Amino acid sequence: MPPLEFSRSCWLPAEPAAVYAFHADPRNIVHVSPPGQDARIVEGAGPAVAGALFEVEVTVLGYLPLAWQARWQDVEPPRLLCDTSSNALFRHWEHRHEFAPAPEGGTILTDRVRYALPGGWLGRLVGATLVRALFAGMFAYRHRRTQAWFRQTPSSA
Asked: Structure pTM?
């Protein structure tokens, strides 16, 4: 079965290079993680480099600790970052962060996630319903927090 897909976009009041730089530093996950998903970087702080690993400890559903190790797959400043993971909850994980200049100024950020859970048809059902709903809430929150971050950082516009 092919992986499931989820995407969400938002406008940010900053140029693509600034938005890219924010996302290229895994330490910034702590600034955009929803309540109940406390995150901290364990390894791999600093700018994204293709092939480099980073590890985040995150709390899932408010109480389940999860060590998340990911690799920067594609690094194309200032338009694309893609991280992949194979040792987390997902059988397949690919998260693309796409940064495009907005016609009115600023940046359109699009998060695209291709994912698959283990467990055959049951994993696919859970992925298409529960996980998709969790992603919708999580990315809506992350985008609001990222917008607030750049509104408070006038030099990035």
From this structure: 0.90
Exposure on the CB side of residue 103, measured as CA atoms within 13 A: 0
- The radius of gyration of the chain from alpha carbons, rounded to an integer in Å, stands at 15
- The pLDDT of 60-84, averaged and rounded, is 89
CA 58 to chain centre: 13
| Domains detected in the chain | 4-156 (3.30.530.20)
Q: What is the DSSP-derived secondary structure letter of residue 125? A: H
Calpha distance 54→60 (Å, rounded): 18
Q: How far apart are CA 134 and CA 101, in angstroms?
A: 28
12 in helix, strand or coil?
Answer: strand
DSSP string, 63-94: TEEEEEEEEEEEEETTTEEEEEESSSS-SEEE
DSSP 8-state code for residue 26: G
Helix, strand, coil % over all residues of the chain, rounded to 5: 30, 40, 30
Average pLDDT in the chain? 90
Query: Helix, strand or coil for residue 149?
Result: helix
CB distance 55 to 42 below 8 Å: yes
